[in-house]
Design goal:
Blueprint lengths: L3 H23 L20 H10 L3 H15 L1 E6 L3 H15 L2 E6 L2 H13 L7 E5 H9 L19 E2 L2 E14 L24 E4 L3 H13 L4 H12 L3 E3 L2 H9 L5 E6 H9 L4 E2 L7 E10 L6 H11 L2 H8 L3 E2 L13 E3 L2 H19 L3 E2 L4
Parallel strand pairs: 1-2, 1-3, 6-7, 6-8, 7-13, 10-12
Antiparallel strand pairs: 3-10, 4-5, 5-8, 5-9, 5-10, 5-11
Length: 378
């Protein structure tokens, strides 16, 4: 089992290195599955890419009807995702009910999803048709040339901060301070990010072990607000002083609900929202601004065995699926009616910097949280 330090510092780099090594090994042997050139090769478009290209020029009802026709012939969809299990069940259940297509789901943490795809691609095994996960891992998959181009009218409605080469945001995870309403009196909750550094939260604040994307983005925002590096470093150090360090936002949310700490620095708002609906004494509103948003999205595999079903899923998730995500407490990528975040300052995570310089920022954040006390699941 990896140590905490190794896991923190090299988590994405190690997974990528392992995947590349497996790709080289896998390329020396025969493919365990039939069907087309390797995703990253130079043998021209794959069979799946030809289907995507055929559909790309269609729109509206004509596009949907054609995809449904082809997807019904394929009969199933293989989806890898890092959605929470209840959200994944809701999404795949509604998709399957609407189109009569069986969905095989592999659900795990985003890094595990990435590792599995890299390993399978390295062995020339076509395990999944589509992937829905975090920005970091989607960038890594696209960098390895495993994701196909996706075109569609709904993609054009996604904000620029959610449209990338090889993948499209379906939702945004919003980083927000949250608090236990039984432990934090009304009007005493943090109102700015700087408030988290107040000594009154010593021993009462929790920080998440792997939130270096939040750290990077807030650091950059404060720099633009003319704070010096020294000032910013002092603020983060003050937060971490006496903080409870939790691994995983879901666990962190459960511990907050249970009263093991009073405030969480950077939990996902949807986790708190879902806990509120179940009666937990937690809240995150009004938002501490700016709200830091990280895109999570969908990517079509170049090696998909069921490409029409994969494209239908992407189209549906960016249309009917957006309302379902709202119903599940998530923040959709496309807002066409009343925007619940209207008037709220949003700062998107700089995913490109995160991927290209993630190891540096991971090390810096590890040093920050090393001053806290790690807590375990209840």
């Amino acid at each position: 089992m990896k140590t905490i330090g190794l896991w923190r510092r090299g988590r994405l780099a190690c997974v990528l290195a392992a995947g590349i090594a497996l790709t080289l090994v896998g390329g020396c042997g025969g493919s365990p599955t039939a069907g087309g050139p390797k995703a990253g090769g130079s043998d021209g478009p794959t069979a799946a890419e030809k289907v995507y290209a055929e559909i790309a020029g269609l729109s509206g009802k004509q596009r949907r009807d054609k995809l449904v026709e082809l997807a019904e012939k394929e009969g199933k969809l293989d989806l890898y995702t890092s959605m929470t299990s209840d959200v994944a069940d809701a999404v795949t259940g509604e998709f399957s009910d609407k189109f009569g297509i069986d969905v095989n789901v592999y659900r795990a943490g985003s890094e595990t999803v990435l590792q599995r795809i890299l390993q399978e691609q390295g062995a020339n095994f076509r395990g999944n048709d589509v992937v829905e996960t975090n920005a970091n891992e989607l960038f890594a998959l696209n960098k390895e040339h495993f994701l196909a181009e996706y075109k569609g009218e709904r993609r054009d409605l996604v904000p620029e901060a959610g449209r990338f080469e090889g993948w499209t945001a379906t939702r945004f995870n919003l980083f927000a301070p949250s608090w236990n309403t039984k432990l934090v009196p009304a009007e005493q909750q943090p109102k700015t990010w700087e408030d988290l550094a107040d000594p009154k939260w010593d021993g009462k604040l929790s920080m998440e072990l792997a939130d270096y994307d939040w750290y990077l983005t807030l650091y950059g925002y404060w720099k633009k607000q003319s704070k010096s590096d020294e000032e910013i470093d002092r603020l983060f150090a003050a937060m971490a002083q006496g903080a409870k360090i939790a691994k995983g936002h879901t666990v962190q949310g459960e511990l907050l609900s249970a009263g093991q700490f009073s405030v969480v620095a950077s939990n996902y708002s949807y986790i708190v929202e879902r806990a509120k609906k179940k009666g937990a004494p937690v809240d995150y509103l009004p938002f501490v601004q700016p709200v830091i948003a990280r895109p999570n999205g969908v990517g079509l595999m170049k090696t998909a065995q069921h490409p029409a079903a994969a494209m239908l899923f992407a189209d549906w998730l960016l249309e009917e699926g957006q309302k379902l995500l709202v119903d599940e407490g998530l923040t959709p990528a496309i807002v066409e009616d009343n925007d619940p975040l209207k008037g709220v300052e949003i700062v998107p995570v700089d995913v490109k910097t995160l991927v290209e310089h993630g190891d540096e920022w991971s090390k810096r954040y590890e040093k920050v949280v090393s001053n806290g006390e790690q807590v375990k699941d209840k």
